[in-house]
Known about the structure:
The protein has helices at residues 12-16, 20-29, 45-58, 62-75, 95-103, 121-125, 151-165, 201-209, 226-232, 234-260, 266-293, 323-331, 344-348, 363-372, 380-388; strands spanning 4-10, 34-41, 85-92, 127-130, 138-142, 145-146, 183-190, 215-222, 313-321, 357-359. By secondary structure, it is of the alpha+beta class. The longest helix has 28 residues, at 266-293.
Amino acid sequence: MKQDLSYVIFTPHTIAKSRTGGVMSRLLSRTNLELVGAQIFAPDNETCRTYAQSLRIRAPSNQLMLLADYIENVVAPGNGRPHRTMLLLFRGENPCEQLLNACGHIYPQNVQVDALLGETIRDTYADMIFSKDNPEEIYYFEPAVLTPRRQHEADEDLQLFAKFLEGKENIVRNIEYPDPSVIEESLVIIKPDNWENSSGRPGSVMDMFSRTGLRIVATKIFRFSLNQALDFYSSVDVKLKEKLAPVFGQKAREILEKEFKVSLDVNTEKALIDSFGIKYATEQFNDIVEYMSGRRPGNCPKGLEDEPGEVKCMIILYEGINAIQKIRDVLGPTDPLEAPRGTIRREFGSNVMINTAHASDSIENALREKETVKINENPLMSIIKEHYGS
């Protein structure tokens, strides 16, 4: 069947309340769609007016009028500041129907709290509170997410968003800190093992990071090319050779002595370190590169070294005071077996390579990593334009 595109927008309230992980878990586990794009953006007044007006034209019902007013009054810039939203782009069969079922409907009538089931995203995270004095008057409204009902609506909206996003940087910095010198940025990668099956695991990982209280200022779906993975993990290559080569060179010496009943001197051991030990460490490094890009050094078809790889990650940029250490504390040590209970790697990691997520370990490395993954660029707009041939 035809593969269409649709979207879900996380409202400013959902992002500010760090509900992004919980919402994402529902979307990923309750649909069979592929998440192909993600972007933090802050729509301007014109985009919000156009978006809201399209809702009013489609069906002037109480439900859509509520959403249109919300977009103009809450999503649009306010108090001189644009507001962060998150746009998730999904591809698959009947994406609008699947996403609407996961998000849930908005009921303009007064539904008693005890009648809600918490089954959909809006059941759990949205609010519609009516006045005690007038049961017909809505006192507070927060929809949690925005998603279209029909495919032609999704097509129209996505082209509107693509138009706005063209030329925009991927990072949204919409507040000024009293002391910017204490603010850090930490680059997080939710690694490929989280995306192998349709599950809520990426959202659960994201939810655990939210306990840091840091702000998400950028995100994107990313596929490492072979050369990007080699560059990103270049320091790991050096560390593996320093750490593993002597250990496995010595182990090789012990095995040879036992097998052939000979005594080997330190010079032979050094030769084994420089040959077998280095080779072993290199193979371990190649495993990491293949895991992150889907392509192995030496086996990549010529001309594809700089093309996006076979597996995907999600990159998130967090911002705040002491961001590097806060993220590392929640992530846990490289080896999941050594990670404390309650950390991400202890909960979801398998071994030192397949350990769920990466996080910058210093300000200097965060700068280098952001450059390698081109954090200021996002392919989401290009995916939309390519899909619609524009």
